[in-house]
Amino acid sequence: MNDFVSFDDMYDRIVAAVEHSGPMPDAVDRLYLVRDLSGRVRLSVSDRLEGDPACRDALQRLARALHEGLGAHGYAPDRAVLFVDDALLKALEPAPEVRRGVYLADRLLTGRGWWSVGQDAGRRDGARRCTLFSVKGGVGRSTTAAVLAWHLARKSERVLVVDLDLESPGLSSAMLEHAARPRFGVTDWFVEDLVGQGDQVVERMLASPRWAQDSPGDVGVAPAHGRAPGDYLAKLGRVYRNRPAPWDVRLRGLLQRLEAKFEPTVVLLESRSGLHDVAAAAVTDVDAHVLLFAVDSTSTWADHEILFRHWKTRLLATSIRDRLSIVSALTPELDTERYLQGFREKSWNLFRDGLYGDVEPSGNGGEPYSFDVDEEDAPHDPLPIHWTRGLAAGASLQDLEAATVAQAYGTFLRRFDGLVMDDDGDRR
Fold first, then answer.
1. Nearest CA to 33 among 103, 116, 115, 108?
2. Cα–Cα distance between 401 and 411 in angstroms, integer?
3. Bridge partner residues of 84 (DSSP)
């Protein structure tokens, strides 16, 4: 046994142990290798097999191989096998398959939301959802949410804007005059929902910006907090409680209630930045097209690589890929074309290594392929937002001017309409 096996060494050693220990009996149709909160691996299998000698022998062989290969991350063979109820095994899904019928499941304190890509079965038909997300903050998501709402309202859409950046609230104060802000916000709903009062809050958590009154459409804003934040930090400390249901389920419930009240045609979700579970829910679990904000910097691409590698390893590439459109945020005024070409090449490298390589064409037949680097409207092809003084950070969004918006967002809005509004993001 090696003296030191790091967490990053584990996956290859797990695969080797599974291969070395030989096949499982046919009765073992699903075997879970469960990596616990300490990073140590046990075997979990249905308790229906506990009395089967052949199964017990095969499981012990694998337990010994894992113990020898994983060092401190393995359990002694006599403690490594757990026979559990089938319902508990079901709760470990989804998990990536190590070998046919053998799955690696992780027990996590945080980050679980990035491990699956789901649908929202309870959402309203016809309302398109769009999440504005970035790994790093300060890239103009709030400004873009306001501009998109303004643009879509001018096209006669009914736009619901939901501020989910609860740790850095500001969208509502930027869009709404103080007197126009609603009594409650998203944080209030999550707190009051814990005691059965969520429906009363929904009735008093929407307001409309002044400029929407002159548009053929309509805009409703659900802010992070209401007109008077109250004891905001105390409320924030209770927002993410996974009771009476997991947080992503509660979020979907809130969106369904807001949509039932406002009846939007488009829903814009400003997500929290970073790799927190809260951001994951808005990206993976609400059936939304995701605008992925980025700037051309070494740290930005490195951070995105972590997320893309995770999606690839967990076999989620085909589920998440077509939901994404990358945004070149804060595109500089000078040497713009060269900047965008460099951005596009690095974006393509990111997608090629993480999410491309097995893209299935639409329709019947054909071979899998990858997008070319210069292919327009591919997920890696940047939607540019040009930096402009008129919409710089901190600018008021309570009054938007068409000329300023056109200068910064003209190409972005045209591409957004084509990708998200016209064909619902179907690139093939």
1. 103
2. 16
3. 46
CB 94 within 8 A of CB 313: no
- Note every long-range contact of 76-79, with CB atoms under 8 Å and residues 24 or more positions apart, other chains counting: 79/42
pTM of the model: 0.82
Going edge to edge, which strands form the sheet with 128-134?
218-222, 158-163, 266-270, 128-134, 289-294, 324-331, 383-386
Bridge partners of 207? 221
Instruction: Please give the residue range of the domain that contains residue 128.
Output: 115-422
- Is 97 found in the same domain as 11? yes
Which residue in this structure is represented by tokens 């007109």?
227
Task: Return the structure tokens found at 326.
Answer: 């990358």
Query: In whole angstroms, what is the distance from residue 425 CA to residue 418 CA?
Result: 8
- Is the omega angle on the peptide bond into residue 94 within 30 degrees of 0, that is, cis? yes
- Tell me, yes or no, whether 277 and 367 share the same domain: yes
Q: Are residues 128 and 157 in the same domain?
A: yes
d(CA 420, CA 416): 6
Residue 108: Cβ within 10 Å count: 14
> Average pLDDT over the chain, rounded to whole?
88
Residue type, 203: E
Query: CATH number, domain at 69?
Result: 3.30.300
Tens-place pLDDT, residues 18-56: 999 999 999 999 999 999 988 999 999 999 999 999 999
pLDDT at residue 121 greater than cutoff 80: no
Distance of CA 242 to CAs 166, 193, 270, 277, 381, Å?
16, 12, 21, 11, 37
**Is residue 238 located within the same domain as residue 256?**
yes
